[in-house]
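Lab channel / #folding
Pinned by the channel admin:
"Please post every new chain as: sequence first, then the structure tokens as a reply. Keep commentary short and put observations after the output so the thread stays searchable."

First post following the new format, from NK:
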Amino acid sequence: YERILTHMEIRDKNKVFNKSALRAIESFFLGRYFMYIQVYFHKVVRILNIHLIEFIEEFFGRERFLKESLTDADVISLMLKNPNHPTVRRIMAREHFREVFSTNSFEEFERVKREILSRYEEKLLRFDKVSKKVLDEDILILHGDRLLTLRESSDLINSMKDIEIYRIYAEKGIKDEVREFIRCLS
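Reply from TO:
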């Protein structure tokens, strides 16, 4: 980050980076990209977040949770008081729903979702959609006296696609059956 910051200047209210910081900027965006794919958007992280939201909505209600500024300790305390509640068990005992389908295609996701809902109850399934742009805004790189965007300056960054992941999860006890059903759709 030091190389990035020491090669940044402000021009006409825009942050401009000298091309000598290009490799450091590429490294930053690659690191961020992999953190999203491998950590923030990991299939287990995502389903546990879904179950946590279900727990909060059921026990607190979304409005109360936001209005009262409840803390992690409040949520965990309530979970510990209700260890046998199904949603708590999904989170704390790792009885979470399991991924049965994943794609980068919205159309394929919607097609499989329709088919699966024609056979299985929605309460046995969870659907997830996540996305992240490689670049949230244009980054300007100074090449001598020319200003280029980061995508114009870097073949690596230009080749990176925005992250889009669509997943279907099924209740643990029927995951294999649902996977087989989806496999037979192809």
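NK: The radius of gyration is 22 Å.
TO: also worth noting, The chain is about 50% helix and 20% strand.
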